[in-house]
Each structure stands twice: as structure tokens, then as C-alpha cells.
Design a protein that fits this description.
By secondary structure, the chain is of the alpha/beta class. It has 17 helices and 15 strands. The chain is elongated and about 95 Å long.
Length: 443
């Protein structure tokens, strides 16, 4: 298991918030195979115990306050003798909730409503629902482990290493039921209607994970869109070949057949994708923007390490320029500096020159969103293939369900696009020059 995972296990980190703990990587790495997976020890440390006790105290206080507020809100309900109808009545049996720092035991006050059955209101805690046995962070951790290349049969050992040996409610049968539920959710989601949907921008990528997919399907293809009001939405995912035009054609035709009739204004992705050949055949008016992060990694890979830091700064000067003219000047400077000795690096950069600078025709407020596929990269930064691939194979339906679950969880933290109020102008076809409305330039 990766060193980061071992460290996280010892420190009791919530691995769901992986963006805060791991750097993003983009360069394609050579595949290797490994024959074994080892897990860190399950020793408990004093800091984790303190955190767990603190969580237990805070949860107890919050639930007590919730119950008190409910009873006070029903204080006016009294019988003919003036006795309260809604009162506390001891405690419910103790429950153990599995969290990112291990199991937390909690006792919830019992509320008794003495009124007739047809008038009584059962109390249900919003903080601690009746059937909650594990926090959302744990349910997000399971897809993370699967896409890391850990088989479902090894989940129990991995989870005990991460959240402690006292890990109730996470047996093999529990994991199987969760997986079956997620597969059903994915199937229903993948067949939903896209009628009346309008995505202004599109981000695309083919993501390799540490598991081998059935039928040699190489990766998961991802379509992410920005709606007319600036919200990011997962549009579709499928398994296929990253460089295959046919794989992307099937995915694009699928979303179109489900009602997505209006093509996005701009699509951003890596230049190596087969997507670019399929796109004009399905949405011919959609413009292309190459991802600068992928491009930077590919160019640097063709330069000696001693030059990469300086070359990276030169590339940065191109896509951070405040106008197309300035970007072209920086572009020409890079080619002049490295062209003679490193022609392959310069060819890699120059071949997509126009598509790398398309973003200048859109609002400047949107540039940070359009220049890279970061909305997709940030979700999969810790689970995409880096250095090796696990020996075992993974079910394609299970993998798709896990990816869907992980992205839907990430979607809850997605923010609106900057300058969302400018999206109606983009939809209306208003011309932007160097990120500014053309009429403002003329003024």
C-alpha cells in the first residue's frame, strides 16, 4: 500500500478529504504489476483516542441539545392534570458509529410522547438518524480503497488499519450490500433523461485506476459539464479506451440520445484523447481547449530534468498572459529558446497552439476553469494510476459504480464558476476579446 496511505492510517486522517493531503499529479506513468498488498499496523495512539473522546463529547452535547429543543417546543402539550405529554424517558441502547477516526459510542436520549397513537409525533434525530451505523466519510472511503486497487475481500483488513480494529458494521456482507446498492444507483443514473439540459462548458478525461478492468477496457471516460447557472455536474461516465475515437463516440452519442441536443460552447481536455475526433461528429459547433496541465507535463517529459523548472516557468508565462498577443509572444520565445536542441518538446507544444489559446475568446473570469481539466483531476488525484497496477481484475460495473459514488460525493463540495453571471452572454454568442466583451474593448 502507498506510503501516504500508511501515514494516513497512523495519523487517523479522514482520507475522503484527500485534496488537502495529497499533491495532484498528471504525467502518464509506465504500468507495473505488484503481487501483494500489505497494511499498516492497527496500533492505537493517544492522539486518536483524544480525538475520539472529543468527538463523542461533542456529539453527545449536540444530541442532548436537539432533544431538549424538541421537548421545549412541545411544552404546551399537557393533559387534563397539567402534566407534559412529551417528556424524556431515559436513554436508547448505546450505539457505535464508525467514523474516520474509528468507532464512536453514543447514547441517545429517549423521547416519550404520551398522546394517543394517532396524535403522537415520534422524535427522530437529524444529527443521528435511527439506522446510521457509519458516517458519510466511511462510505466515501470504500470507493477510494477500491479504485486504489484493493479488492472488496481485503476491505475489512484495510478498514481496520485505517479506522481501528474495533470496526463494527463493515463486514464483507455489509460491503457487498453497499456495493450492490451503489451499482443500482449508477444504473438508474446512467439511464436518466438529459432532456432540457444545457451545458455551457465541458471537461473530459480518461482516468486509469490501479485495477484492471474486465475485457481489457483500459480506463474510465468522464464527462463533466457546467450548467447555464454555473454549477458543475457529472454528465456521464463509461469504460473504454482513452485514445479511441469509437469509445468517445459511443459516450457522446449516448448522452445525445438521452436528450442532450445543445452542444457545449467549449470542451477542455488532454490532446491525446480520441474525444477530439468524435466531438465534431456529434457536437460540431463545440470549440476545443487543450488542458495546459497535461500539455505542460508532456512537454517537460521531453526535456532534461535540469531544464524542466525553467521551462515550466516559461510555459506558465504563456497561459498566464493577460492577452492572446502576449501569450503568442511568450509562445514564440519558448520555441526560440528550446527549438534547436529540443525539437520534440517544441513540436509537442506547437502542434496544439490554437487550441491551447482558445480560452482568450471567453470571459476572463472563466479562464481559471477552462485552461485545465482540474475539476476532474481533483476528484481522482489520489486514486488514478501512478506507478503500478494491481494484479487482480475489477468488475466493470463495480468500478463504474465506485467512480460514480466518488464523484457524487465530491460534487457536494463543488463551487459555482467564477463570473457565473456572464454565462448568459456566452450562451447568446457575445464576442469576447482577451476575456472582455467586444463592445467594452471598442469603448
Amino acid at each position: 500500500m502507498d506510503e501516504e496511505l500508511k501515514k494516513a492510517a497512523y495519523l487517523g486522517l479522514n482520507l475522503v478529504d484527500f485534496e488537502d493531503h495529497f499533491p495532484q499529479e498528471y504525467a502518464t506513468m509506465q504500468e507495473f504489476t505488484t503481487t501483494s498488498v500489505t497494511y499498516p499496523s492497527t496500533s492505537r495512539d493517544a492522539l486518536t483516542e483524544i480525538l475520539r473522546e472529543g468527538a463523542q463529547a461533542m456529539l453527545t452535547t449536540a444530541i442532548e441539545a436537539e432533544v431538549r429543543e424538541w421537548i421545549e417546543g412541545h411544552e404546551h402539550l399537557r393533559d387534563e392534570r397539567g402534566h407534559r405529554q412529551v417528556v424524556r424517558n431515559g436513554y436508547l441502547p448505546e450505539r457505535s458509529i464508525t467514523t474516520g477516526i474509528g468507532p464512536v459510542k453514543i447514547r441517545q436520549p429517549r423521547v416519550h410522547d404520551r398522546r394517543a397513537k394517532d396524535a403522537a409525533e415520534p422524535f427522530s434525530s437529524k444529527i443521528l438518524p435511527p439506522y446510521l451505523r457509519k458516517t458519510r466519510s466511511i462510505e466515501e472511503l470504500l470507493p477510494w480503497l477500491y479504485l486504489k486497487g484493493i479488492s472488496t475481500g481485503d476491505f475489512n483488513e484495510a478498514l481496520q488499519a485505517l479506522v481501528g480494529p474495533e470496526c463494527p458494521g463493515l463486514s464483507a456482507s455489509t460491503v457487498t450490500r453497499l456495493l450492490e446498492g451503489w451499482q443500482a444507483e449508477y444504473h438508474q443514473w446512467s439511464k436518466r433523461s438529459l432532456k432540457d439540459k444545457h451545458y455551457v462548458y465541458l471537461w473530459v478525461d480518461g482516468v486509469h485506476f490501479n485495477i484492471r478492468l474486465e475485457e481489457d477496457r483500459q480506463c474510465i471516460l468522464v464527462l463533466l459539464g457546467a450548467t447555464a447557472d454555473g454549477r458543475k455536474e457529472l454528465i456521464a461516465i463509461s469504460d473504454g479506451y482513452r485514445e479511441s475515437e469509437q469509445s468517445w463516440m459511443e459516450l457522446l452519442l449516448d448522452v445525445k440520445s438521452r436528450g442532450l441536443s445543445i452542444g457545449p460552447k467549449l470542451a477542455t481536455g488532454d490532446g491525446a484523447l480520441g474525444f477530439w475526433k468524435a466531438l465534431p461528429k456529434v457536437f460540431p459547433t463545440t470549440r476545443s481547449q487543450r488542458c495546459w496541465v497535461h500539455k505542460t507535463a508532456n512537454v517537460l517529459d521531453k526535456l532534461p530534468k535540469r531544464l524542466q523548472a525553467r521551462a515550466k516557468e516559461a510555459i506558465h508565462d504563456i497561459w498566464m498572459a493577460d492577452s492572446r498577443a502576449s501569450a503568442n509572444e511568450a509562445f514564440d520565445s519558448f520555441l526560440a529558446t528550446y527549438g534547436a536542441k529540443y525539437p520534440k518538446a517544441c513540436e509537442c507544444l506547437a502542434k496544439d497552439r490554437d487550441e491551447l489559446l482558445t480560452f482568450y475568446d471567453f470571459p476572463a473570469e472563466h479562464w481559471k476553469h477552462l485552461r485545465t481539466t482540474n475539476p476532474i483531476e481533483s476528484v481522482f488525484a489520489t486514486v488514478r494510476l501512478r506507478h503500478r497496477r494491481t494484479k487482480g481484475s475489477g468488475s466493470r460495473t463495480a468500478c463504474l459504480a465506485m467512480v460514480h459514488q466518488l464523484m457524487q460525493s465530491a460534487a457536494k463540495r463543488w463551487r459555482l464558476l467564477n463570473g457565473s453571471d456572464l454565462l448568459p452572454d456566452v450562451i447568446a454568442g457575445v464576442q469576447f476579446i482577451d476575456g472582455v466583451k467586444s463592445q467594452e474593448v471598442a469603448a
